[in-house]
């Protein structure tokens, strides 16, 4: 479906004015993991303590926390939203890096013509500093209700001009209500250069996704999601260094009926560079202690910093364990040794027999005292059963 050029509404004009950063690994430091708290189970939040777990490069973009840490948009070098209702704001209650994110809202819009809030087509702006650009994005819980099959909500747009086309990037709602499984990418919407590459995982609401794109002016645009290549649209793509870029809820075609309520999009961790940027931190859980062997799963980030990281655990297809935690920071430095999330110790019938024989007849140091409280009882039996083999 060829998408017509829209008036640039519901958007934030991104401003990057930072030069080419050459030495990518000057400040590289290997991440470490000192401790993990939380119950290891699907959907649970785990908190990881350590060091150097992000290490975003200062020279790619300032401030390093993602560009939303100042007093307001103008103070951080961003274009202001110009709609009179000002349905955009910094949000300290929802953030991935640093203390704030940027939130763009749609409120009570007409689904047939698209929303009319957050217009910023006449706002001030600067140009991108590099051909590689990255941001983390999260949509509110009603994403799959508002945008369904055949609809769209533009997330990234680089303007046409100087002989170049207009580039669009967004999730593609046509692939179902359980969360889009495809992206919509076009280097130049006028050339019918649209592609619909498959996402590494469904684009579900209330989850941070890392989107990185590389625009080679006049040649094409390439997109990665969560560090995984998803596709390249060949065409007369925009020049991100000499043309402005919009991110946010730019314009959209909704469900065909009025929507009474608020739809929100949050953005954080924005960076721009002439080099590949990568996610701020890549956290994975594997069922093998050797990286690259066995099965490993990318973990949804909840909060990222050098000293503390939170993830929502996904153990799907990893079996019963043991599980090994890996952290790779933005400098592409990986922990030297994975953190073992589940002890490899197991017990069998011989251990059970010994425990029963020692029940309440225990001397200090007996092997059946599994919790070291100088007594063998149901607590020790519970520990043994939890690790039965």
Summarize the structure.
The chain is mainly β and 389 residues long. The protein has helices spanning 143-146, 349-358, 378-386; strands spanning 12-14, 32-37, 45-51, 88-91, 101-110, 132-139, 152-153, 156-158, 167-172, 182-186, 209-216, 220-225, 228-234, 245-247, 252-253, 258-273, 281-286, 296-298, 300-303, 308-312, 324-329, 339-340.
Question: Notable features of this structure?
Answer:
single chain, 389 residues, mainly beta, seven-stranded antiparallel β-sheet, five-stranded antiparallel β-sheet, 3 helices, 6% helix, 31% strand, elongated, disordered N terminus
Report on the structure:
The protein has 389 residues and is mostly beta strands. The protein contains 3 helices and 22 strands. The protein has a 7-stranded antiparallel β-sheet with strand order 4-5-16-6-11-12-13, with no helix packed on it. The protein has a 5-stranded antiparallel β-sheet with strand order 1-14-8-9-10, with no helix packed on it. A 4-stranded antiparallel β-sheet has the order 2-3-20-19, with no helix packed on it. The longest helix is centred in the last third of the chain and has 10 residues. It is elongated. The N terminus is likely disordered.
């Amino acid at each position: 479906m060829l998408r017509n050029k829209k008036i640039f509404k519901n958007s934030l004009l991104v401003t990057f004015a930072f030069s080419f950063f050459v030495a990518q690994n000057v400040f590289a430091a290997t991440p470490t993991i000192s401790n993990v708290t939380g119950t290891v189970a699907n959907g649970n939040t785990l908190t990881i303590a350590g060091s150097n777990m992000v290490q975003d490069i200062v020279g790619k973009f300032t401030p390093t926390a993602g560009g939303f840490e100042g007093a307001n948009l103008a103070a951080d070098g961003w274009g202001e939203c110009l709609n009179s209702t000002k349905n955009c704001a910094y949000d300290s209650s929802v953030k991935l890096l640093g203390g704030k994110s940027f939130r763009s809202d749609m409120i009570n819009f007409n689904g047939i013509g698209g929303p009319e809030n957050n217009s910023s087509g006449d706002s001030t702006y600067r140009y991108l500093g590099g051909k590689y650009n990255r941001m983390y994005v999260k949509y509110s819980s009603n994403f799959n209700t508002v945008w369904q099959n055949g609809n769209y909500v533009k997330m990234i747009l680089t303007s046409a001009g100087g002989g170049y086309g207009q580039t669009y990037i967004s999730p593609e709602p046509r692939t179902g209500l359980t969360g889009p499984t495809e992206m919509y990418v076009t280097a130049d919407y006028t050339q019918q250069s649209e592609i619909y590459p498959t996402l590494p995982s469904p684009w579900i609401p209330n989850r941070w996704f890392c989107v990185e794109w590389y625009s080679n002016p006049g040649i094409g645009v390439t997109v990665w999601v969560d560090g995984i290549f998803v596709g390249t649209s060949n065409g007369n793509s925009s020049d991100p260094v000499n043309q402005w870029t919009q991110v946010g809820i730019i314009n959209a075609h909704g469900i065909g009926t009025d929507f009474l309520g608020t739809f929100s999009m949050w953005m954080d961790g924005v960076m721009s560079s002439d080099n590949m940027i990568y996610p701020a931190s890549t956290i994975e859980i594997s069922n093998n202690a050797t990286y690259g062997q066995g099965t490993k799963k990318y973990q949804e980030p909840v909060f990222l910093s050098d000293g503390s990281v939170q993830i929502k655990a996904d153990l799907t297809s990893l079996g019963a364990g043991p599980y090994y935690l890996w952290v790779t920071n933005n400098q592409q430095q990986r922990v030297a040794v994975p953190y073992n999330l589940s002890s490899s110790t197991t017990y069998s019938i011989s251990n059970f027999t010994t425990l029963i024989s020692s029940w309440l007849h225990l001397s200090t140091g007996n092997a059946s005292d599994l919790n070291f409280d100088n007594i063998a009882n149901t607590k020790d039996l519970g520990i043994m059963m939890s690790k039965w083999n």
